[in-house]
Write a structure and sequence with these properties.
This protein has 236 residues and is mainly α. It has two domains: 52-177, Cytochrome Bc1 Complex, Chain D, domain 2; 186-230, no CATH class. It has six helices and two strands; from the N terminus they run H-H-H-H-H-H-E-E. It has helices at residues 2-31, 43-47, 67-77, 79-82, 126-136, 147-160; strands at 186-188, 228-230. It is globular, with a radius of gyration of 29 Å. The termini are far apart. The structure holds heme C. Heme C binds next to helix 4 and helix 5.
Length: 236
């Protein structure tokens, strides 16, 4: 009798404890959201940060723009720093333009003694130009340009570089299809220091077949999207 009484008491106590724990878990889940720790981010709030334009055109905006409109905008908002027709740029030191030259001049090349980097010689994908201007320019008021203005400025700069005709109206369908002159000038340098056998003598150059021979691709898959490096520029 005594034993079973104790047993009943213990069982009851455990049950009580269990019920209480369940209750408090339930209460806790009801209370989520009542601590004023913040609020759910809405899609609209996120959209002002989520502005990456991908090389294949993913995330490009609705809109359109042409050369003439772009020229008008350029002459108002860009010329002061990048010069007439994008061929200026301000050089603060003798080796590089501190403010980029945007448009290729005749004879500009990446393989000359002083490589000339600009949209015509260097840039790999046309949508990236749209994305770059959207994020950063004009320098003093980034993110101030509308989608139509961005298409127009992109059209202006691509046409001035001789990549598209001055008649072409750019939009999100045709911009990714533009082939940039330097699209094949990059290689995937997927060497990972920790996995590669260091080469100390007669080492292959980046554009030689043997260059990547020590790399086990399965270790670097996650890096593939970030592994583009310029092929043509001589090392300094
Ligand atoms: C106040 C000066 C200033 C103005 C105005 C300005 N930019 Fe720039 N721009 C710069 C500077 C500085 C850089 C280089 C930034 C860097 O390398 O980090 C640059 C870089 C660029 C580049 C990248 C070039 C490259 O090959 O790396 C593009 C494209 C560009 N600007 C477009 C524009 C456009 C289009 C406008 C007008 C809407 C504009 N900029 C207005 C200062 C300016």
């Amino acid at each position: 009798m005594y034993v079973s009484n104790r047993l009943v008491k213990t069982t009851l106590a455990s049950l009580c404890f269990l019920t209480l724990s369940l209750q408090s878990a339930e209460q806790a889940s009801e209370q989520i959201g009542q601590y004023n720790l913040g609020e759910k981010v809405t899609k609209k709030q996120l959209s002002s940060w989520d502005i990456s334009i991908f090389p294949d055109g993913k995330n490009l905006l609705e809109g359109k723009g042409d050369y003439q409109t772009g020229k008008g905008l350029y002459d108002m908002q860009c010329i002061a720093c990048h010069g007439a027709n994008g061929k200026g740029g301000v050089k603060l030191d003798p080796y590089r333009g501190a403010i980029a030259t945007l448009v290729k001049s005749e004879g500009d090349s990446l393989t000359s003694a002083t490589p000339k980097k600009n949209i015509g010689t260097y840039w790999q994908y046309a949508p990236s130009l749209f994305g770059y201007i959207r994020r950063t320019m004009p320098y003093q008021s980034p993110k101030s340009l509308t989608a139509d203005e961005l298409y127009a400025l992109t059209a202006y700069l691509l046409a001035e570089n001789g990549i598209i005709s001055k008649e072409m109206v750019l939009n999100k369908e045709n911009l990714p299809k533009i082939k940039m002159p330097n699209v094949d000038g990059f290689i995937c340098d997927n060497k990972v220091d920790t996995k590669s056998v260091p080469c100390m003598k007669d080492c292959p150059l980046p554009n030689e077949k043997a260059y990547n021979k020590d790399v086990r691709i399965d270790h670097v898959d996650h890096l593939k999207s970030d592994c583009l490096v310029q092929l043509n520029i001589p090392f300094e």
